Amino acid sequence: MRTEFHQQLDAINSDLARMCELAGEAMQLATVGLLTVDLEAAERVLTELEVLSRMRREVDQAALAVLARQAPVASDLRVVVAAVHITSDADRMGGLAAHVARIVRLRHPDPVLPNDVVGQFTEMGNLAVDLAEDAASVIIDGDPVRASRIRDDDEAMNDMHRRLFTTVMSPAWSHGVPAAIDLVLLGRFYERFADHAVAIAARVLFRSTGDTTRDFGQ
Amino acid sequence: MRTEFHQQLDAINSDLARMCELAGEAMQLATVGLLTVDLEAAERVLTELEVLSRMRREVDQAALAVLARQAPVASDLRVVVAAVHITSDADRMGGLAAHVARIVRLRHPDPVLPNDVVGQFTEMGNLAVDLAEDAASVIIDGDPVRASRIRDDDEAMNDMHRRLFTTVMSPAWSHGVPAAIDLVLLGRFYERFADHAVAIAARVLFRSTGDTTRDFGQ
């Protein structure tokens, strides 16, 4: 039987996983807004992220309360310290989805994306959602298969990001400077989103091993 | 007389302040590299940041040790929790200086900056250094004057960042897409650097008041 203390840690982890899911849902919605020039989707991202920010404050408070009342040590302590980092990463993932939504809103009713990069952003959006879901799953069960898929998807995201640079920097680019800048910033938002999922996976690893030499990817 | 426990907290805070100073020195050196097309300066940034990353791991470990052995509560607990966030922010500030240095290295021997934006980046570099120094100072003494100067300098940085967008997106921009992209990314690195200094000031505030409603600016 789990003690009350371990039930508190379970509740924190379950909230952390939910935060990652919310960040993934926000990036999915922001990507829909981007791909289909959907202002309403973009606006909804910004509203729904308020839930994520509220959860962050609640989980941070819960973690502080556990530290103050239970004075955990060893791996239990690392779970709580990892938690306060993970709330920060998940909230930041939501913030990056908000950045995508804001660019959609800023350019509306014009599309942000020229047709020839819609496929690239579809793929980056799918990767981002997978990464957030895998991060949620790794938090709950530490599944090493999912953790290694996070690394692979992050690599794939970095490749997409580099490809985007090649596209907009090529002499064949015909959409001008403002469109190029939007694309480079969007690419960076998706790439940073992936980095935070990697950071979460590294935090989970630290939680069980105490290993701080892994790149936390920030 | 300070107890051994409070001496440990003082040592952590002193290391955090040093980390901010190192991040500021790295951004100063990266800006010198950028403004004077100095490859050696850019390379030195990358080497010197290893010290910052090592300090981050050491301070994170020291904070964990304090939590495990001393089980602090109330404001002492908040000092330690703030510390693990601040190491992350300061290390990330160093990472952003590294991003600037890498662009300098990538374009070398060509300059990254067209002449007409050298003044803007000189100013952004100065703001970044001031922000890092003020963050260091706020960590040590919580000086509200310095804390409010961080807010002002961050606002000034945001203005510079917006001005940069106006410059490169203007029809008068004559330096092409690749230069525009470099500038927008550089602008974002300086602006994010400032955001982390703001986050550090907010953490220091949380440390003394427990207030988590302030925007941690990530």
From TrEMBL, chains A, B:
Residues in PhoU domain copies: 16-104, 122-204
Its biological purpose: Plays a role in the regulation of phosphate uptake.
Subcellular location: Cytoplasm
A Gene Ontology biological process term: negative regulation of phosphate metabolic process
Name the record gives this protein: Phosphate-specific transport system accessory protein PhoU
First-listed, main subcellular location of the protein, grouped into a coarse class: cytoplasm
Assembly: Homodimer.
UniProt-listed Pfam families: PhoU
Family from the record: Belongs to the PhoU family.
SUPFAM superfamilies according to UniProt: PhoU-like
Superkingdom as given in the UniProt entry: Bacteria
